[in-house]
C-alpha cells in the first residue's frame, strides 16, 4: 500500500463503503482505532452499518468522538476488509488536511474506546482473520525527503518487502514495562558519539504518528548539552550552528546497535519553511518528551527515526522488528548541493 509524506505525517488513501469513498488517513502505530470525519464527511453506503455504540479517543495532540459503524474497507489491491469498525467523528480537534486515522497499533489500545466496552480488531487483525494475509503483521517503509508531498512510503500487510531493507531484521519482544507495553513498546539505550550516554536501557515506543524523536527531559538535556544546540523559539526545535561537529546517535535495540547519523538528526533543509524556520538554519529533530526518565515511557522513536530504518509490527508474536535501509546512511537532509535544499514548500 503506497503512503505519502505530507511533512509531519505519512498518510494512506483508504476506500470505505460500497462503492468506496476515498479518505486520507494518518498512518499511526501509536493508536488502534480507524476513523474518519475530521475533513471529508463519512458517506453511508449499502455496506455501512451503525452499531449503536459511541466511540471516543484522545491522542497526544488531538481527539475525536462520534459513532461506530462497520463497513467495507479497501486498503489496496487485493486488501479488502469486510465489517471493519470505523469511527465516524461528530467532533474532532487537532487534525487538519486529513480525514482521520488508520490505527495499526496493538489491539488492546482500543479497549475502553467504545461505549459498549468491547475491544476492536484493527484492519491488520481483520485482514488476517478473514484469510487475506498469512501473518498478522504490518511492515512499514518510510524514506527521507527534502520536498513534499511525495509518495515515498509503503505499508506491507502480512509480510515484509525485501527490497526496502538490508538484512537482517532485528526482532525484539514488546517491553514488559508499563505504560510502554500497551503500545509497540521496546527497550533500548541511546549513546551520543563514542562515550556520551544519553539514555540507559529503558522502555519507550515506536510510533509512526509522532513526527520527531522524543526523549525524556533529562536525556533531552544531556543531548542538548552534548551537541551545543540552542532552542529556537520560532520552531520549537533545537538549532545548531556547527553541523560539522554533530556526532551520530547509537541506539542499542536487542543485540544490535543502530547508528543514527548526524544528517538523520536534522530536519530536512528543504522543508524548513514548513516549520516556520529560515532556509539557512540547521534544526535538530530530537526534542523533549516532557517527562523525566523512569516513568515507563522514556522515548518515542517517531517518523524521523523510521525514515532511516525499516520497521515490522507483529501482532501474533508481540514483537517489533528494526532493520537498516538503503537510506540509513545516505546524507539527504543537509548535503551541500542537494537540488531540493532550498525548495519553496
Automatic annotation (TrEMBL):
Domain Peptidase A1 intervals: 10-323
Q: PROSITE patterns, alphabetically?
A: ASP_PROTEASE, PEPTIDASE_A1
> What is the residue range of the signal peptide feature?
none
Q: Which residues form a coiled coil?
A: none
Any one GO BP annotation for this protein: proteolysis
- Give the top-rank taxon of the lineage listed in the UniProt record for this protein: Eukaryota
Keywords from the named record: Aspartyl protease, Hydrolase, Protease
For this chain, one GO molecular function annotation is: aspartic-type endopeptidase activity
Q: What InterPro entries does UniProt report for this protein, alphabetically?
A: Aspartic_peptidase_A1 (IPR001461), Aspartic_peptidase_AS (IPR001969), Pepsin-like_dom (IPR034164), PEPTIDASE_A1 (IPR033121), Peptidase_aspartic_dom_sf (IPR021109)
Active site annotation, chain numbering: 28, 207
Question: Does the record's keyword annotation contain Chloroplast?
Answer: no
Annotated family:
Belongs to the peptidase A1 family.
- Its recorded name reads Peptidase A1 domain-containing protein
Q: Native species of this protein?
A: Sphaerobolus stellatus (strain SS14)
Amino acid at each position: 500500500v503506497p503512503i505519502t509524506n505530507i511533512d509531519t505525517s505519512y498518510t494512506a488513501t483508504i476506500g470505505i463503503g460500497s462503492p468506496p469513498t476515498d479518505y486520507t488517513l494518518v498512518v499511526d502505530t501509536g493508536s488502534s482505532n480507524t476513523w474518519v470525519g475530521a475533513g471529508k464527511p463519512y458517506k453511508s453506503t449499502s455496506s455501512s452499518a451503525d452499531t449503536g455504540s459511541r466511540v471516543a479517543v484522545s491522542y497526544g495532540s488531538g481527539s475525536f468522538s462520534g459513532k461506530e459503524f462497520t463497513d467495507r474497507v479497501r486498503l489496496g489491491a487485493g486488501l479488502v476488509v469486510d465489517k471493519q469498525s470505523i469511527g465516524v467523528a461528530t467532533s474532532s480537534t487537532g487534525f487538519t488536511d486529513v480525514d482521520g486515522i488508520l490505527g495499526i497499533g496493538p489491539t488492546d489500545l482500543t479497549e475502553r474506546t467504545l461505549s459498549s466496552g468491547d475491544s476492536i480488531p484493527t484492519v491488520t487483525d481483520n485482514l488476517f482473520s478473514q484469510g487475506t494475509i498469512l501473518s498478522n503483521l504490518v511492515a512499514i517503509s518510510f524514506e527521507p525527503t527534502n520536498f513534499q508531498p511525495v509518495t515515498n512510503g509503503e505499508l506491507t500487510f502480512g509480510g515484509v518487502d525485501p527490497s526496502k531493507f538490508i538484512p537482517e531484521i532485528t526482532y525484539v519482544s514488546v517491553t514488559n514495562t508499563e505504560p510502554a507495553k500497551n503500545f509497540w513498546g521496546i527497550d533500548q539505550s541511546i549513546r551520543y558519539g563514542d562515550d556520551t550516554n544519553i539514555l540507559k536501557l529503558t522502555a519507550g515506543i515506536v510510533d509512526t504518528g509522532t513526527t520527531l524523536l522524543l526523549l525524556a527531559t533529562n536525556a533531552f538535556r544531556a543531548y542538548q548539552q552534548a551537541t551545543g544546540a540552542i532552542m529556537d523559539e520560532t520552531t520549537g526545535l533545537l538549532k545548531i550552528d556547527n553541523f560539522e561537529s554533530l556526532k551520530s546517535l547509537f541506539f542499542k535495540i536487542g543485540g544490535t546497535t543502530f547508528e543514527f547519523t548526524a544528517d538523520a538528526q536534522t530536519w530536512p533543509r528543504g522543508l524548513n519553511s514548513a516549520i516556520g524556520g529560515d532556509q539557512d538554519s540547521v534544526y535538530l529533530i530530537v526534542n523533549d518528551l516532557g517527562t523525566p526518565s523512569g516513568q515507563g515511557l522514556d522515548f518515542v522513536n517517531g517518523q524521523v527515526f523510521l525514515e532511516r530504518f525499516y520497521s515490522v509490527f507483529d501482532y501474533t508474536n508481540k514483537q517489533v522488528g528494526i532493520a537498516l535501509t538503503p537510506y540509513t546512511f545516505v546524507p539527504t537532509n543537509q548535503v551541500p548541493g542537494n537540488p531540493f535544499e532550498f525548495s519553496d514548500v
